[in-house]
Amino acid sequence: MLVVMKAQATPEQIQAVCEYIEHLGFRAHPLPGAQRTAIGITGNQGEFDRGNLEELSGVAEVIRVSKAYKLASRDVKEEDTIIQFPQHGSCPEASIGGRDLAIVAGPCSIETRDQAFEIAEYVAAAGAQFFRGGAYKPRTSPYAFQGLGIEALRIMAEIRERYGLRIVTEAIDNETLELVAEWADVIQIGARNMQNFSLLKRAGKLRKPVLLKRGLSATLEEFLMSAEYIMSEGNYQVILCERGVRTFADHTRNTLDLSIIPAVQRLSHLPILVDPSHGTGKRDSVLPMARAAVATGCDGILVEVHNHPEKALSDGPQSIYPDQFVRMMDELEQIAPVVSRRLPRVPVPATAD
Ligand code: PEP
Ligand code: MN
Fold this sequence. Notes:
Distance between the termini: 57 Å
Largest sheet: 8 strands, parallel, barrel
Bound molecules: phosphoenolpyruvate, manganese (II) ion
Number of helices: 10
Order of helices and strands: EHEEEEEEHEHEHEHEHEHEHHEH
Helix content: 25-40%
Strand order of the largest sheet: 7-8-9-10-11-12-13-14
Radius of gyration: 21 Å
């Protein structure tokens, strides 16, 4: 159910409607829009009896939302969601979902302080706003490198301070979620955890942006339902990320499904990034697919960059070299205006010493 408030509804009227909904045992989600506020109603306690909701002052209409996902749907919020990152410490203002493309770059895993700093220096110089790096790695083999853990989180916090790059890193379970939420600017939930509903619900209780990667075999509806899990707990800052799905094709690690971009944009207001690294698994395919992703209209790119990919502890074959990253930025900067976008290239803050 969705309550559409009148354009001139006051904050007190909105508050009163929310209280009425909660009093009925449901959850109210006020969603401010450019023209008017809408209030999403969720709850699993059976059919919603609209009672005299329509008579409350400030209410324009009460609509039934027929889609399985509600808060993630464009039916509930017409305008695109833009996740804002205000200027903080050495990090300049940034956004995901607006006119500016968001670029998230860095190694698959944080391996050493030197490795992470060297890569951060390159990606910051090329103008990225976000630095990625795994501290906790979901690996297919239990014998493979599992990540440096808290040490990696500390290294990334230093990188944020030094280069003004915001940190995106993955939480793999309920324990690591708490730590990641404390240290990171954006919490990544990986493909393998897209349907870890208890993790999604916990991430929904936080008030930090969550980057949700599409599961290896997830349909669009399943993907949006996972976003809904996070939003249903009150965290509306969800960023979707297409990272390829399993198909019979074996020329790439996964099949990067760029056709999901317009489909998501039609059905949902949430921003969507594309990860051409996991999406192809092949270094040579990363740049062409990044260009295609921007041309298709995504809100940004998440890409793995490594200074010595041949020695990387994870995902070396799909990690691009720093000079390829510079080329990618140059090319995306040229493609962006064709699709009414802009690639902001953020200058690196000067060192104090
Ligand atoms: C990653 O970003 O390094 C990662 C593990 O991604 P995914 O969950 O998409 O496999
Ligand atoms: Mn990886």
